Amino acid sequence: MIVVQTVKNAQRIVAHEPGAVNGQVSLEQKLGDARALVPDLDVYPAAPHEDAALLEQIGRWCDRYTPLVGLSGTDGLMMDISGCAHLFGGEAEMIEMLRARLRGQGFNLRLGVADTIGAAWGLARFGTQPAALSGGDLAPLLALPLEALRIDEKTVLALRRLGLRRIGCLTPLPRAPLTTRFGAGLLQRLDQALGRAAESLMPLTPPVDITAEKAFFDPITHADDITRSITLLAQTLVPLLEARDQGARALELRLFRVDGHRQHLIVEAAHPLRDPARIAALFRERIAGLAVDIDAGFGFDLVKLAVLRSETFAGTQGDLVSGSQNTDRFEALIDRLGARLGAERVRGFVGADTHIPERSFGTLPVIRMRGAAAAGSTAGALRVPPLTRPLWLMSRPEAIDVLAQVPDGAPMRFRWRKVGYVAARSEGPERIACEWWRDGRAAPTRDYFQVEARDGYRFWMFRHGLYDRERTAPRWYMQGVFA
Amino acid sequence: MHPQAADILDRLALTPRRGKAAPRLAFGLKSLDTRLEGGLIQGALHEIRAPTARDIGAATGVTLGLLATAVAQSGRDRVMWISDPAAGVDAGVLYPDGIAQYGLDPSCITLVTPVDLQTALWAADEAARCPDLVAVVLHVRGNPRQLDRVATRRLMLRAQTSGCTVLVLRQSGVEEASAAHTRWRVEARPSPPDPGFPQGLGLPQMALTLERSRTGQTGGWPVIWNPKHKAFAHGSKHIYTDPQVSVDRPAVSGHRPDRAAPLGHVVDLRRASTRRAPDDCGADGQECPTDRGA
Q: Which partner for B191 in A7, A373, A472, B202 could form a disulfide, CB atoms 3.0-4.6 Å apart?
């Protein structure tokens, strides 16, 4: 099987199976040449986007070995395993495990372990497998070809012409002439590989401060086991949160399936959380509210719980003595509803600074409500509030047929939703001008009327536009229902 | 389960215990509160029904009046308003400015908008267990099958345990057997004219009919909500003096010349024999004779 892509105006092989067709095809060979050698080639076009997505997925799967996994170019992954290798029995065992598991999933891979990003990059691509740089022994690195330094082709060619073929040839040379001849990039790459210059890794998932994980020898499949492990993990998180004087506002659960699939769930809380039982309860609701159940497959062998966002934790939680318990139960309810239905479905009113009725208020998820402006008109604060606003508002005003005096009389008869009404009494007009800075200067004025129909229904309707001045025949719209 | 057995179980489980005085939510109207033995029982399920979609304003008015009274009485100020997505299609959205003018602080209200009725019922069930809420309003449209006797019984039991009042606001639904302690029908009525401004609108008036209650009381009262005092008042039967014109067919329907004549109402004779229309009852708080059953 080979993969081809158009490079330099020709279809060229960009990837092939290891040892494909007895080594008769090679990289960068033209497809025509390869076909001539092997007529029945299995040819596939390159799909860079799918490749990138797959690589990222593998990277996220590697999250089980270390929290710091980053992409390295378009064809590699870089993992920072400092402090993680001993969890898997040392670097050599870890590499073997990684190799075996990814081979098992059908991937061919090359691995390199080194003290620096540059050295690992070179070892993985050009070293003899398995390539590991142990205990400051630089010999395997120095024996690598120059391409292993991540420098461009032109520089490699120029260096070759000078007879410099290996990295080891560069190290004894004086630095100043190298810089003047080849630029600062070459030496920087060399320093990065040798650990003389710093280089950082951009992780796929932002590293979280507080996290707990549990690996299982026997993969777990039951929902009860998952919930129990969440409680256990939450209990491990509590001392970490306490030490920082924090409570969790958002938590992420990552479930790693044996076959490499990875699922993650996020819950958010209205207030900082620290109680393991409540954290577990939130995830239970979240799982129960999933449209598609979690597919356990052959089971999960690793469960991670991470605090994505935390806030200073004020007071104690669930205290039976103090009065804080009251708000606590309400907050717990909000969190529970939010976990099952989605936080954006539990909302509260917030005000907005405009007179156009349908824009004068909004709703925000309660979880994000803190500090937002409260809703409610100033009229509500009056001692004798006039009832000028309806209880229900049509979010899209509905067109109605109205018989009214020209030019600015109140409605006398109208028809709304196929029912005719006769107006008995009315109040108005209340004129609300358009917001020219949003709707443009031509937007018509609204004249609102409160109308009571003869059978007792009270409506809020408006004429959209002034006669003659703005419209020849303004339309009427129903916008609300009073009590 | 045998229907009668269900009835008996309901009565045993859901009727408040004698001797244990459940807190009452008084309307503040003498005749109405006497009939209810002190007011609506808090920590119970009550149903407020708007027979047609356009009565939702009046039904919401009564609901908000009760909520405002309950908030003032209990000192708690959390109300959860759970809407079936089907209900919002006709009604629109709650307007916080209007609610504030009506007498309830809109910041008390937490809106819950689940994706379907099944999750709305679950949310109502969860909310009814929370003792910090003064009330839970479940706004549904029509008579959905999921909100049956079992579901309402669950809500009732939850409310009894927590002390949180659960109100089912049913929009354009017909009367239906449920485990609710009381069921009210609310219809809009013309407002009494304001003496200072007779051509304008007065205070909102509603016809409140107690269709069914667990104690067997029924009745009908015209009530007015007074946002100044945040209290209900007895309504008057205001009738327009000018002659009635054909309201059903106003002249605006120029593009529809021939409309069918309105059909008569379908009446359930068994129910009609035991129920009394609100218009039969006297105005100004006069009581109707008590009738049992329904």
A: B202
* H/E element, A141: helix A139-142
**Each residue's pLDDT tens digit, A212-232:** 888 888 888 888 888 889 989
The DSSP line for A205-247 is SPPPSEEEEEEEEEEE--HHHHHHHHHHHHHHHHHHHHHHTEE
User: Which residue from A144, A88, A89 is spatially nearest to A114, judged by alpha carbons?
Assistant: A144
Q: Where is A436: in which H helix or E strand?
A: helix A436-439
Percent of chain B residues topping a pLDDT of 70: 74
Q: How far is B3 from chain A (nearest CA, A)?
A: 33
What are phi and psi for residue B167, nearest 5 degrees? -115, 125
- Is 0.90 topped by the overall pTM? no
Per-residue CA distances from B281 to A180, B54, B284, B289 (Å):
106, 24, 10, 9
Residues in chain A closer than 8 A to B193 (CB atoms): 425
- Which residues of chain B lie closer than 8 angstroms to A380, CB-CB? 97, 99-101, 105-106
Query: Phi and psi (nearest 5°) for B66?
Result: -65, -40
d(CA B212, CA A235): 51
- Per the CB < 8 A criterion, the answer to whether A201 and A80 are in contact is yes
Q: Rounded to a whole number, what is the distance in Å from the CA of B195 to chain A's nearest CA? A: 14
B97 and A CB contact within 8 Å: yes
Q: Please name the residue of chain B whose CA is at the shortest distance from the CA of residue A343.
A: B112
Asked if A360 and A375 touch (Cβ cutoff 8 Å), the reply is no
The answer to ipTM > 0.85 is no
